[in-house]
Prior knowledge:
With 124 residues, the chain is of the alpha+beta class. It has a seven-stranded antiparallel beta sheet. A hairpin with a 3-residue loop joins strand 4 and strand 5.
Amino acid sequence: MKKIEAEYTVHSSPGVLYNRLSTASGLAEWFADDVTIDKDGLYHFSWDGEKEIAKLLSKKNLEFVKFHWTHLEEGTFLEFRLKTDPLTKDLALLVTFFAEEDEEEEARALWDQQIEELLHILGS
């Protein structure tokens, strides 16, 4: 698995963006068809009948959210990190994810599409 990082400029407040990245209802608006959190704190994502489970590894309000997909090997993760430029105050979203070496281009295209949906929802 290869670690991949992508950065996107977001025209939104950090609070509004963080909510879309860290809550089940926020993630269900742009990332999956449905997201629920069970009693053990596991996030259940579904897309067109397909289901994936992620464990929340860590989060810090208005800074980052980090998940581990339970079907992927240990040490892999999905992280959403907010970064504000100290001079321009522009907000960036850094997405870190893992993909097979031969699927990097496809994975990046999928993330570009997902983030485009997020930006549309945010009116960004």
